[in-house]
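call fold target=Acyl-CoA thioesterase 2
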Amino acid sequence: MKESLKALLDILDLEQIENDIFRGRSPEDRQQRVFGGQVAGQALVAAGRTVPPNRPVHSLHAYFIRPGDPSVPIVYTVDRVRDGRSFTTRRVLAIQHGKAIFSLSASFQIVEDGPAHHAPMPDAPDPESIPLAQDRLTPLFGERFATDFVARRPFDVRHATPLTWEAAKDPALATPESKVWLKVDGELPDDPLLHVCLMTYASDMTLLDTVLLNHGLAWGDKRTMGASLDHAMWFHKPFRADDWLLYYQDTPFAGGARGLARGQVYTREGDLVVSVMQEGLIRVTDT
């Protein structure tokens, strides 16, 4: 198992410090602020630990309120809003320095039958036929940067569409959609909550990139800055985060210094298992 995946599994294993109160930490490889997918994944872990395992999560809605400080722990308080016959509702608040940095509401449901359909999976090349991330990044940033970037990521991520940095160099590559194959870089235990929490983490890695990709912008281009504002996910069917998943993403709108992106996650067999929506702050300055 890749070391970065071991570290991620460790930070998702929250410490329970009181009834419905949990404590999480950030990776030792600290960035300027806590990665949004991390706090969302940890919050869902906290919520899930207060719900019977026969009630899987089917949706979450979250707001990123303040930047997280990676140098101090995050305290997660869980409010048991409702325990009904079919549905369970939880509200989670993430707190640092005495202030809320993130809020999440999640709904869990017993397994039931009903009418079924789903949107078909878009065409995409097999993940094995796509160049590795390191091979795509090396011509752009050099071998050392590419190696370090890939080593820090707990997921094997392979883009079937242009990278934002490629489109920033060649405007002809700009597109409003992105197709990304991803899976964790190692084998996981059979814990359904863990798999959905890992997908929650991964869902924030490339989603706002789709907005940038449509405008020939890229993080680190010295004129673009942004942050996740809110995030919503719907979990349709069970899946495994250690199997290849196609993350199809597009952007229907950008304006007012905000961009909207949506995603659909498919198994390799073509089943739609997760839907995602996110709005993010996107500010561009003149250079």
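return ok
The chain has two domains: 1-110, 126-287. The domain at 1-110 is CATH 3.10.129.10 (Thiol Ester Dehydrase; Chain A).
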